[in-house]
Specification:
This is S1/P1 nuclease. It comes from Pseudoalteromonas qingdaonensis. Pfam families: S1-P1_nuclease. InterPro entries: PLipase_C/P1_nuclease_dom_sf, S1/P1nuclease. By secondary structure, this protein is mainly α. Helices cover 59% and strands 4% of the residues. It has a three-stranded mixed β-sheet.
């Protein structure tokens, strides 16, 4: 068989497997989740650097001394746990589809007392903030909601987690990154970050925050953050089977770094406001 034909056949099989995984909710490792592990840890590490003394003391008490970087990946790690919430409900907490900006603005999002009523990341964040602000919330629930909140603020700063429902936030947009078969969502979750070949702590220092950037990200406005990410998503959508490489990295690496930085600084601002 012709080598080129073999290569095309292999790509077709691999892409079918990837798409089947997306369709049936199968995860292909951490790359299937927002930012991947390193992206979330970068955001957590940046946030921890910018907590007030009061907020840091409260956060560390709730997390029993666990760092924000470590806590940031918990919500993804638990998606393999048994139980209806983790297997059937929790995945909806990680994203919000915005097919119409006006429809989003006209839709009321609110906190819920029942986890099963949460349909998207916005409601999940509002629920977590409300639970953490109540004096009678149990220690176990405070830890649950704080871990989730740390993760979800990271999620919504990955633009394709505020993307379109039709392509599942880029999961159905097939691309090649340096000849590696992937999809647009996975590319933004993990591959653009891993391209730098840095650990999360090195990456955190690599995109260190200026005082101006800190000041610019002090305002807590969840809805504005979501709309901002959605507008970014509209600028990065690719069409199927594109060959992406150095030019794509050059075009979008600064946006990746911007979103990681914003996620960390804004998470710190939110926690400082809560505590």
């Amino acid at each position: 068989m012709d080598l080129q034909l073999i290569r095309r056949s292999f790509k077709a099989v691999l892409m079918a497997a990837l798409m089947m995984g997306t369709t049936f909710g199968i995860s292909f490792g951490n790359q299937a989740w927002a930012w991947g592990a390193n992206g979330h840890r970068i955001i957590g590490a940046i946030a921890e650097q910018h907590l007030s003394a009061e907020a840091k003391a409260e956060v560390m008490a709730i997390l029993e001394g666990q760092s924000l970087a470590r806590a940031s990946t918990w919500a993804d790690e638990m998606r393999s746990a048994p139980g209806q919430f983790w297997q059937r409900q929790s995945s909806r907490w990680h994203y919000i589809n915005i097919d119409s900006q006006q429809a989003f603005l006209n839709t009321e999002h609110q906190a819920h007392s029942d986890k099963a009523d949460i349909k998207d990341a916005y409601s999940a964040i509002l629920t977590a903030i409300t639970a953490l602000g109540k004096a009678d919330t149990s220690a176990a629930d405070k830890q649950f909601y704080l871990r989730f909140l740390i993760h979800l603020i990271g999620d919504i700063h990955q633009p394709l987690h505020v993307g379109r429902s039709a392509d599942r936030g880029g999961n159905r947009i097939n691309v090649e990154f340096f000849s590696q078969v992937t999809n647009l969502h996975r590319l933004w979750d993990t591959q653009l970050i891993e391209f730098q070949k840095l650990s999360y702590s090195e990456y955190k220092d690599f995109i260190c925050c200026t005082q101006t950037q800190v000041v610019q990200n002090q305002t807590v406005d969840i809805k504005a953050w979501l709309l901002e990410s959605h507008q970014l998503a509209n600028t990065i959508y690719a069409q199927g089977d594109e060959q992406l490489g150095y030019e794509y990295v050059y075009q979008y690496q600064t946006i990746v770094e911007q979103q990681l930085r914003r996620g960390g600084l804004r998470l710190a601002a939110l926690l400082n406001q809560l505590y």
